[in-house]
């Protein structure tokens, strides 16, 4: 089969992928050595793309009120309901909520339909939860949402500062490029994070900052920059005000020692080439935009911007978060970085689109949009490529709001998601590998995603669905494209118009692109026009502000919302290494599901002791917004009072693991981005009377107070718990597995243990292990016996010749923590490379190398203690 060059659909690094279909629906993937973002590397999620690209769980046909329908019926209904709602209540009574995982062409069509034809700007994207503070900070400082630098700046820098970014897990290939540069030239790495993450593995300095105090820290740095009289260009606006605010900042709020601050200032100022990378620890805050500007201030004031090896660098989360910003996916922007508040910009876009009803003002931002849905001001909602019932702050409230909306359309690739449950009309979209289009990565590089696979059933491309609705609403001539290349060409032409109005975003070189050229399009950096060609911005000291000067912003640090006596813990949230958001795709891969198979709460040992929570117990986390039940992971990687929980679990995988049920709706006043990293919560032991672990080669329908499900190569596993044991365990197990058979049962009443196994022809079909406390059995041993072993599973212990791998570390070769620890001890291994030679662990994608290094460090510490 032919190998096709495409782009990874996960993070904003935007790695090139070589995809080879096997003809039977399967897909082999490898890193594209020719792609400038990754030069052949892939992380574990990219490497597992073949496992997640199938048709399992996919939505195959449109559904109206749960019954299958034809496309014509579904599209006519949508067009009619939107037209009727607009006619009766005006254009602002409808809304689109879209996604940074859409392709640029999808985004362009959605934006044109809403802002130019429906005549409202009520289109916002999940980038509001992700990049909005970076966008707002850039616009305040530079006059445009421009990322000045390139990935290679991380390799050319002498010092790289990572603020609120777990790069090792969230941008793994960029992290690996940084690690390689550090090994080659001794780059110093500073990590600023209240948590000790895997990224700290390569940190020369880890500042375990008090949550929310980043603006104060960078203000202190700015004051120090000016005190040490570093280059401080006169040609910046507002410099005196910014310095005055900086000098008034107290170091105490950062929670850092004087010596740590000194070390940070020294490292920063002794290198000319400093890159400051930031991500959600900065953006997702109720002072996110100020945090961004506090960082930008330091780079502006010291002139460290837009030249090789230096500059501020906001890394984007989603594969096309950047493309969405460019194309105007946010409710307060127009296409091509033009501004909705600017009448000239509006007029230029109106003319270009020949728009009958151009939106005149900004639309509702994500959190406000769902408030308007709740209040009935929005009566028709179309959610595309995102899962807000899980991922928005106050998620229970958002779910209720969607449930109460008059007309809800959801376009997704999957048949079942938490948001899909509320769809009046469900539309099957083509997914990654099935559609053609473009995405822009964190360094402004536009790459093609290409179709490699056949879509399931009647699935259609998102842009085609949107254009079809536009046509049925009466605007056929403006939504008549036949090929995504035509959409891209129109967009490129519009960028030429925008450039004429001073916009930085200009890809007008592609305004005449043909289908063949589009098919052959190589990854390129924007701008790309007759006169401009990629590269960095602002190295010449000229910015996009009206005066042409960079703008300092006076930042007065604000502490985050205080915790209270009732809710004394500040819950931090984020990501794990091997899962992507609500897991609709990574959850299909057994390999990716083994690293962390359950929602958890990382809790400091003193907090755990005080709360009476043992490792592996279940904790109930509550506040006024909602509650969650999470597995306790006792760890000093988090600070006392500041537990951490990942965001990935949903009603489909672990209904009590939805952490956004706890996150309040507070937003940053400038960007409207919700403060997703900070929820005041109470924690107490979850009063479970029984705990269970189950495996099944067939189905699994848990019905108990706590459950978390994960896929296995040959079935599914689940952790279970309940407040009250069922009357009969055999009946419970039969219902759980959908089996009628008679199980083998071992009942140890003294210890409160029950073990049940269902065998068929001597082979294990399903098993349930119940105990009064957390089930202490080797999960990997039991899952390995599924379909293979028999009654010996009831012993629960690994037999001879079956080593217990423990928790998975290296997903590529399936190597667990126990094997690595054993090899380190018995063979006295001291380096990640040595572990790789001994076990192969960490030698493929490299995503687990930080964890191997941590195990080595722990091993060395043990040996030293023993000596
Ligand atoms: N494996 C994986 N990778 C992903 C994703 C995924 O789902 N899984 N999603 C992608 C997306 S869309 C995004 S946006 C990115 C996100 O990438 P990151 O932003 O790197 O990831 P997060 O885990 O959300 O948060 C980063 C860190 O912010 C820290 N933090 C919390 N509060 C503060 C604070 O007040 N100050 C500072 N300095 N730090 C704080 C947290 O402890 C956390 O370690 O990842 C992308 N990559
Ligand atoms: N507490 C907390 N909450 C957070 C965050 C956090 O750090 N903490 N991070 C926030 C951030 S940065 C982000 S980006 C969001 C992410 O949150 P979401 O965007 O809500 O999460 P995803 O799981 O990525 O949802 C994407 C959906 O689109 C579907 N899909 C995939 N491909 C396609 C396609 O081609 N077309 C269509 N139509 N559908 C498709 C998937 O099946 C899935 O249902 O979460 C935010 N929420
Ligand atoms: S770093 Fe991993 S998830 Fe991100 S684009 Fe590359 S392969 Fe995909
Ligand atoms: Mo994101």
From TrEMBL:
SMART domains hit by this protein: Molybdop_Fe4S4 (SM00926)
Family per record: Belongs to the prokaryotic molybdopterin-containing oxidoreductase family. NasA/NapA/NarB subfamily.
GO molecular function: 4 iron, 4 sulfur cluster binding; metal ion binding; molybdopterin cofactor binding; oxidoreductase activity
Residue span(s) of domain 4Fe-4S Mo/W bis-MGD-type: 1-57
Keywords assigned: 4Fe-4S, Iron, Iron-sulfur, Metal-binding, Molybdenum, Nitrate assimilation, Oxidoreductase
Stretches of the chain forming a coiled coil according to its record: none
Gene Ontology cellular component terms for the protein in this record: membrane; oxidoreductase complex
InterPro entries: Asp_de-COase-like_dom_sf (IPR009010), BFD-like_2Fe2S-bd_dom (IPR007419), BFD-like_2Fe2S-bd_dom_sf (IPR041854), CT_Nitrate-R-NapA-like (IPR041957), MoPterin_dinucl-bd_dom (IPR006657), Mopterin_OxRdtase (IPR006656), Mopterin_OxRdtase_4Fe-4S_dom (IPR006963), Prok_molybdopt-oxidoreductase (IPR050123)
UniProt protein name: Nitrate reductase
Names of the cofactor(s): Mo-bis(molybdopterin guanine dinucleotide); [4Fe-4S] cluster
Domain of life: Bacteria
Pfam family, one: Fer2_BFD
Iron-sulfur listed as a keyword: yes
UniProt key word 4Fe-4S: yes
Example of a GO biological process term: cellular respiration
């Amino acid at each position: 089969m032919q190998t096709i060059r495409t782009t990874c659909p996960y993070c904003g690094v935007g790695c090139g992928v070589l995809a080879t279909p096997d003809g039977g629906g399967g897909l082999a993937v490898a890193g594209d050595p020719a792609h400038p973002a990754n030069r052949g590397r892939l992380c574990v999620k990219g490497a597992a793309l073949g496992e997640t690209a199938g048709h399992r769980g996919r939505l195959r046909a449109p559904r109206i009120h749960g019954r299958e329908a034809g496309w014509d019926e579904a599209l006519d209904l949508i067009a009619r309901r939107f037209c009727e709602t607009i006619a009766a209540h005006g254009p602002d009574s409808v809304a689109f909520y879209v996604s940074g995982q859409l392709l640029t062409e999808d985004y362009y069509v959605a934006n044109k339909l809403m802002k130019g034809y429906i005549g409202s700007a009520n289109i916002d994207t999940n980038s509001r939860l992700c990049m909005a503070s970076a966008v707002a900070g850039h616009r305040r400082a530079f006059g445009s949402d421009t990322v000045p630098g390139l990935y290679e700046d991380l390799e050319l820098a002498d010092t790289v500062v990572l603020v609120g970014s777990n790069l090792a897990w969230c941008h793994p290939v960029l992290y690996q490029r940084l690690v390689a540069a550090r090994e080659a030239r001794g780059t110093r790495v500073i990590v600023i994070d209240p948590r000790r993450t895997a990224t700290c593995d390569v940190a020369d300095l880890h500042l375990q900052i008090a949550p929310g105090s980043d603006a104060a820290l960078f203000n202190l740095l700015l004051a120090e920059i000016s005190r040490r009289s570093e280059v401080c260009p006169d040609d910046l606006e507002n410099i005196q005000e910014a310095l005055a605010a900086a000098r008034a900042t107290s170091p105490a709020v950062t929670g850092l020692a004087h010596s740590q601050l000194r070390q940070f200032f020294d490292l920063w100022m002794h290198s000319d080439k400093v890159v400051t990378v930031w991500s959600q620890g900065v953006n997702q805050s109720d002072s996110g935009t100020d945090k961004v500007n506090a960082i930008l201030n330091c780079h502006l004031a010291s002139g460290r911007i837009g030249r090789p090896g230096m500059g501020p660098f906001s890394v984007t989360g989603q594969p096309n978060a950047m493309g969405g910003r460019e194309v105007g996916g946010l409710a307060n922007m127009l296409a091509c970085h033009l501004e909705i508040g600017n009448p000239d910009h509006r007029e230029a876009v109106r003319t270009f689109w020949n728009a009958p009803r151009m939106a005149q003002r900004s639309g509702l931002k994500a959190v406000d949009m769902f408030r308007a849905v709740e209040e009935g001001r929005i009566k028709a909602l179309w959610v595309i490529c995102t899962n807000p019932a899980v991922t928005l702050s106050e998620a229970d409230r958002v779910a209720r709001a969607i449930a109460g909306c008059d007309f809800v359309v959801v376009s997704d690739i999957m048949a079942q998601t938490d948001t899909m449950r509320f769809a009046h009309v469900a539309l099957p979209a083509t997914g990654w590998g099935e559609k053609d289009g473009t995405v822009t990565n964190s360094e402004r590089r536009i790459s093609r995603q290409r179709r490699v696979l056949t879509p399931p059933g009647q699935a259609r491309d998102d842009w085609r669905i949107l254009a079809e609705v536009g046509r049925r609403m009466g605007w056929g001539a403006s939504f008549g494209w036949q090929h995504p290349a035509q959409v891209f060409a129109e967009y490129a032409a519009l960028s030429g118009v925008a450039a004429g109005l001073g916009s930085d975003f200009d890809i007008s070189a592609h305004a005449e692109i043909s289908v063949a050229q589009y098919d052959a399009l190589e990854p390129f950096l924007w701008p790309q026009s007759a006169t401009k060609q990629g590269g960095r911005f602002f190295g010449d000291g000229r910015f996009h502000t009206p005066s042409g000067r960079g703008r300092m912003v006076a930042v007065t640090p604000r502490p985050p919302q205080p915790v209270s006596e009732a809710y004394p813990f500040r819950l931090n949230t984020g990501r794990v290494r091997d899962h992507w958001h609500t897991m609709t795709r990574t959850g299909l891969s057994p390999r990716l599901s083994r690293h962390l198979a359950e929602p958890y709460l990382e809790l400091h040992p003193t907090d755990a002791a005080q709360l009476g929570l043992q490792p592996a117990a279940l904790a109930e986390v509550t506040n006024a917004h909602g509650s969650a039940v999470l597995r306790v992971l006792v760890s000093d990687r988090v600070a006392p009072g500041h537990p951490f929980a990942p965001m990935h679990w949903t009603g489909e995988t672990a209904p009590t693991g939805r952490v956004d049920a706890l996150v309040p709706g507070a937003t940053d006043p400038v960007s409207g981005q919700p403060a997703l990293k900070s929820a005041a919560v109470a924690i107490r032991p979850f009063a479970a009377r029984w705990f269970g672990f189950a495996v099944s080669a067939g189905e699994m329908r848990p019905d108990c107070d706590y459950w978390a499900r994960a896929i296995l190569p040959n079935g599914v596993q689940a952790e279970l718990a309940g407040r009250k044991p069922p009357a009969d365990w055999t009946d419970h197990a039969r219902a759980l597995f959908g089996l009628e058979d008679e199980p083998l049962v071992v009942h140890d009443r003294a210890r409160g243990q029950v073990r049940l196994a269902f065998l068929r022809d001597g082979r294990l079909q399903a098993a349930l292990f119940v105990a009064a406390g957390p089930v202490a059995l080797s999960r990997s041993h039991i899952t390995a016996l599924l379909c293979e072993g028999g009654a010996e599973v009831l012993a629960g212990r690994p037999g001879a010749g079956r080593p217990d791998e423990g928790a998975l570390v290296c997903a590529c070769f399936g190597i667990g923590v126990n094997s690595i620890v054993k090899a380190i001890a018995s063979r006295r291994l001291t380096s990640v490379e040595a572990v790789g030679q001994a076990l192969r662990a960490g030698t493929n994608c490299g995503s687990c190398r930080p964890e191997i290094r941590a195990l080595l460090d722990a091993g060395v510490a043990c040996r030293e203690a023993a000596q």
